[in-house]
Amino acid sequence: MEIIGRSRRTPYPLESFYDEMFEQDLPVRPHYKQAYNCFSAMKAEELATKQQAMNRRMLEEGITFTLYQPEQPQPLERTIPFDMIPRIIPADEWAVLERGLYQRVRALNQFLYDTYHQQQMISDGLIPRKMIVANRYFRPEMMRIDVPGGVYMTTSGIDLIRNADGRYYVLEDNLRSPSGFSYLFKGRSIMNQLFPELTLASSLRDVEHSLNHFLSSLRSLSPSRKSEPVVALLTPGEYNSAYYEHAFLAQQMGIHLVEGRDLVAIDHKIYIRGMKGLQQVDVLYRRIDDDFLDPLAFQPDSMLGVAGIMNAYRAGNIAIANAPGTGIADDKAIYAYVPDMIRYYLNEEPILNNVPTYLLSRPEEREYVLGRLHEMVVKETSLSGGYGMLIGPTASEEEIAAFAAQIRLEPERYIAQPTMQLSRAPVMQDGQMVPRHIDLRAFVLMGCGSAHIIPGGLTRVALKEGSLVVNSSQGGGCKDTWVLA
To answer: 85: part of which helix (H) or strand (E)?
Structure first.
């Protein structure tokens, strides 16, 4: 099928996928008409100039991601591929997503409280005890600790997909230290600069105010009664793949950017070492994993964290976002129980559905999946970023056989899902619109007594034709996501 643009003829096969911009017989969906008219009216030379300007902005501002590849001896630092055609979501559609995201995060937060207190969900048979106590992200050190405001997950990144039926599904929950905020905010800034006539005419929900909500959420966790609590972002350092984001968020929110060596524990309090002496930290937004947070409590050879920070945390002298031990809630096996959590903790029906999921620790589900690996997506429960996955429809016989052997050896490490037909949206390549698969990482910010969902989130794009893998770590790109006001 083809689209007839004002200045050129563009092949655009719709096939059996849901397309965000076009309906099945190719008329443009109403909420995309302004964007479609804008891009279809532009000449190829003008589009190329805009793309060059966009790439230059990304490079000048250091909007980069470090890509680690097994075949490369050195990591590759590269700009995030950013597509100029926005993904657009109507207001009524977003309102449903907002309610569903808020519902999901509330249930997950209550699950974490229950995990580290009464464990009532185990007593009531909701979740097997082994799935909790044997989970690699379960932290016995967090038992009976009352976290500030009862907020375990200040930042959440919930990955959503839209299937061929047009319905949204939650693909996975990212609750330890979700990334992608900087690409969301910078993407909007670049679009405002390069396409001001389009962004101004489209009546969009603002995202810049979300940075204020981010800071307010962090400040609200402060255990002290200071009117201006000291907030710091703990980064592993400049060699981390997401260091640009750490520096960007610290600068935009006006908080301290620190590494473990900048902090010291004294009398169960955490201080920043500075030119003017010591300054007590009230809230620490950490972008390092639990294992490296405190060598006295977790991994003893860690050079990234702060010795004694868990003692300060237990003493109630500092808040840590996200709370240690939160990772148990984004384990891919625990994910399968989230709809039941919503019913159990909130007495509500889930607004957003999970993708159907098979737990390979269950013999009957394991045998069912092993007989259909060529149809399935198999994931290692504790990994993220597109690692440890088998995508059956595109895998070789050797890859399928190797995964089958691993599943039989350690079935509890894996879950499987049917291959979902991720929706597609047009991207601009060589002056033409071509379809590519996308997902949506929605960000939820929680503080004491408040929650904010950033309008739109980050749309991630599988830039390789036919690919379903959108992760930046696997070569994916992103789009600006517009929610209509």
So the answer is: strand 82-89
Q: Which residues of 370-397 are buried (b: 16+ CB within 10 A; e: fewer)?
A: beebeebbbbbbeebebebbbbbeebee
As a whole number, mean pLDDT of residues 119-128 equals 96
Check: CB of residue 175 under 8 Å from CB of residue 423. no
Type and span of the H or E element at 174: strand 168-174
Contact predicate 353/330, CB 8 Å: no
Distance CA 99, CA 133 (A): 31
Instruction: Write the pLDDT tens digit of every residue in 269-321.
Output: 999 998 889 999 999 999 999 999 999 999 999 999 999 999 999 999 999 99
Q: What is the pTM of this model?
A: 0.92
Assign 140 to helix, strand or coil: helix
Residue 379, both tokens: 């994931």
Total Cβ atoms within 10 A of residue 189: 15
Rg of the chain over Cα atoms, rounded to whole angstroms, equals 23
Distances (CA, A) of 266 to 11, 54, 346: 65, 47, 41
Q: Which of 87, 104, 85, 86 is closest to 96 using CA atoms?
A: 104
Q: What is the token pair recorded at 479? A: 């789009």
Taking the C-alpha atoms of residue 452 and residue 60, their distance in angstroms, rounded to an integer, is 31
Q: Is 259 exposed, middle or buried (0-12, 13-18, 19+ CB in 10 A)?
A: middle
**CA 1 to chain centroid:** 34
pLDDT value at residue 4 = 41
Domains and CATH numbers, the chain: 356-418 (3.30.1490.270)
**Count of CB atoms situated within 10 Å of the CB of 163:** 17
- Residue 450: strand pairing partners: 447
Count of C-beta atoms within a 10 Å radius of residue 96: 12
Checking if the pLDDT of 227 tops 50, the result is yes
Q: Which DSSP state fits 35? A: H
Q: CA–CA separation, 324 vs 311, rounded Å?
A: 13
- Contact predicate 324/145, CB 8 Å: no
